[in-house]
Here is the input.
Amino acid sequence: MNSSIKKKEFIQKLASKMNADEQTATSWLDGVTDTFYDTFRNGKAGIKIFFIPSMIVH
Here is the structure.
């Protein structure tokens, strides 16, 4: 069983969910990843993430 996904495929799925182009999805993902990295590097042990169900776009 293959349990990984290549970044290109992930970006395509993300862009589709965002109703955006792949360049926008890539910028968004890279920004979020960099922010997570900076947060952990600066000694923060965790990040609380929540969502509001009404914000989910189907």
Observations:
- The mean pLDDT is 83.
- The helical segments are 7-18, 22-41.
